[in-house]
Specification:
The chain is built from 14 helices and 18 strands. It is α/β, with parallel strands linked by helices and 416 residues long. The strands form three sheets. Strands 2, 3, 4, 5, 6, 7, 8 and 9 form an eight-stranded parallel beta sheet that branches. The chain has a six-stranded antiparallel barrel with strand order 10-13-16-15-14-17. The protein has a two-stranded antiparallel ribbon with strand order 11-12.
Length: 416
Amino acid sequence: MPTRRQVLKRVLAAAGGAAAWPATSRAAHVRRQQPAAAQPSPARTVTHVRDSAFDPRVEINAAHLAHNVAEVRRRVGGRPIVAVIKNNGYGCGTAIVGKILETLPGVAMLAVVKLSEAVALREAGIRKPVLLMGPLDMAGLDEALRLRIEPMVYTPIGDTFDRIAARQQQAVAIHVCVDTGIGRVGVPVREATVLIRDLAARSSVRIASTMMTFTEDPQLDIEQLARFNALLAVLRHDGVAFGFRHAASTFGLFQRPDAFLDAVRPGMAIFGIYPEPDFRAAGVMDLRPALSLKARVAYVKRLAKGDTAGYNRAYVAANPVWVATLSVGHADGWPRAAAQGARVLINGALYPVIATVSASHTIVEIGDAPAAAIGDTATLFGWEDGARPEDVSAACKVSVYDLTMHLNPLLPRTVV
């Protein structure tokens, strides 16, 4: 009767195994297979890959930014533009969009809300004036003024500016915010005369501008502008310098030509997005979306009738159907509500989002044929008709502001 070792040798030989198990011990075999210590290891080149080609990404269209700025300039008769690029540049990236806008004619100043964003602009080499519209503590104020960042002011802190100006040996440029009815920040309009007089009288201060914000209520906006103009008329009559006047945001560009004043302060219009559906239809400005969220198809499969997709069986296939899984989810800023009506552009066709949007995945229904393949690019929103941010916003009933401003700041961003 053959031994176990003899059987094993026959099996290996039958499989073409010329290297049948040797008669020596297994330990000796292992030792013999180890490389000699004197043999040098070959040099290796280590490449660090940060992002997978399947990761979602944001693309910024520089030509569309330039076009939108030109459209705003045309609309406001060439008035200077204070370009608001708050909240990570409306999703584009503060420094990225700041560098593009700084080169464009008509953009006189950039405006942000957080000190970190203002500092990022300076660290990126931006030299144009930067307006910081958010609050500051004393340490933050020192840092801002050191970097020539101009703060928005609405409290009586003239004595502080006296000390800072004495130390820096130059006047501090500030912007006074007046609350004419929005109730958010700003010195109340009934108290603004006293504050502005005090600040304007100090050699330590230069009031670069005086500003207000509309509530975007049609009736109250009329009263707000009247209050603002009345305040400035009194100051002008008394010879008080209050700088240039600005009030109109993107909403005001469409609704309040009487509020264009000395400069305008748009945000969303710069990025080519209409804040209201009626504005797009009005034809006042031709705005082109300047940012796009894209991902790749990670998987394609055919569901049989009755198969489900998504958490809690959110989708049940009524008939056999092909679906594609995209490598993007709500952790990237793509809203959960997208599954309630949004459509995604793949290979020139729009496909509905189905099931549920999870943290890192989105499923779309692509029909009775596999019209998409792994690796295809999907545009969640962009500058193509039917896939503009306003189209997605309207389809799934989310704010267009939320769609762009909530994009994960860690996503890779590319200028195209």
